[in-house]
């Protein structure tokens, strides 16, 4: 089994940088709109050495029955640590580029590339895709199961698409390095939602319900009125889009939920729930195109 040993060296200096997101983009934590702008931040020099090694994952004849479970927990903990390191490297590369410290940005870019080549989950994902392309489905299933053991969240894409009673909900999430602090266990994810009314009746979005689960399987239910302060009416063959955000205490997790809606073309119409299919929150991201 591949495991990765990581060494992290972080130096701080007083060089400052400022960066903001484009003016037309805003996200809202907890569905409350807030513009993503970042104040002065000290440029940090982050030196990370990552290397993979082969280890015998087999148990001896006298191993206890709980050995496999213990190994699984170690794998998950190791993935958690690697995800933290990966998030920190990406953040430092962004800060170095914004500070015009291009040599450091290039070094971090190369470190990230090496990290991605040696990271077990990313390597297994590549092998799984290659196996699928070659129609070696048994191999693909084996790689999938190995990923599931190390990082079950990673099999979930950073996007989802579901339709309920003609109402289609598409979601895409993205990790925001500039608002995250990996060393403090703070990760910030933005998500974009498009709601399309493919039915022949107008609907109004009344309430939202989110189930947010971190990498430790700790879940939180969040309820609210409307979205970003609105209860939009969506006419047939029209869409409503908005952006919001979610902080997380782990480098990965997932979100799912539903919107409570009602048809407004008839008096006393009953409300109904429109599903938001699960989607990942991941510092690694995936190859899914934006909606």
TrEMBL record:
What is an example of a Pfam family matching this protein? DUF525
- Where in this protein does the record put region Disordered? 56-76
Q: InterPro entries, alphabetically?
A: ApaG-like, ApaG_domain, ApaG_sf, UVR_dom, UVR_dom_sf
**Residues in ApaG domain copies:** 161-288
Stated name of the protein:
ApaG domain-containing protein
Instruction: List where the protein spans the membrane.
Output: none
- Which intervals hold domain UVR? 83-118, 118-153
Q: Which organism was this protein described from?
A: Lactuca virosa
| The organism's place on the tree of life at top rank | Eukaryota
Lineage here is: Eukaryota, Viridiplantae, Streptophyta, Embryophyta, Tracheophyta
């Amino acid at each position: 089994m591949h495991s990765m040993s990581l060494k992290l060296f972080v130096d701080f200096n007083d060089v400052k940088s400022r960066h903001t997101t484009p003016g037309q983009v805003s996200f809202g934590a907890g569905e409350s709109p807030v513009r993503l702008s970042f104040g002065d931040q000290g440029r940090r020099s982050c030196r990370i050495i990552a290397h993979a090694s082969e280890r015998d994952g087999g148990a001896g004849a006298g191993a206890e029955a709980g050995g496999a479970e213990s190994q699984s927990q170690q794998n998950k903990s190791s993935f958690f640590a690697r995800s933290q390191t990966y998030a920190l490297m990406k953040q430092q590369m962004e800060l170095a580029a914004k500070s015009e410290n291009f040599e450091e940005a290039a070094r971090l870019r190369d470190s990230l590339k090496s990290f991605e080549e040696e990271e077990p989950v990313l390597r297994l994902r590549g092998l799984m895709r290659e196996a699928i392309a070659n129609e070696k489905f048994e191999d693909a299933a084996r790689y999938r199961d190995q990923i599931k053991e190390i990082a079950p969240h990673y099999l979930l894409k950073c996007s989802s698409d579901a339709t309920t009673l003609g109402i289609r909900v598409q979601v895409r999430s993205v990790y925001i390095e500039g608002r995250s602090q990996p060393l403090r266990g703070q990760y910030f994810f933005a998500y974009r939602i498009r709601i399309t009314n493919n039915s022949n009746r107008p609907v109004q979005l009344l309430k939202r319900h989110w189930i947010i689960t971190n990498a430790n399987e700790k879940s939180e239910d969040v309820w609210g009125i409307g979205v970003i302060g609105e209860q939009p009416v969506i006419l047939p063959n029209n869409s409503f889009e908005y952006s919001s955000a979610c902080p997380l205490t782990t480098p990965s997790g997932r979100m799912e939920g539903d919107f409570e809606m009602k048809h407004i073309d008839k008096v006393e119409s009953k409300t109904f729930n429109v599903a938001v299919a699960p989607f990942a929150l991941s510092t690694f991201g995936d190859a899914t195109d934006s909606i």
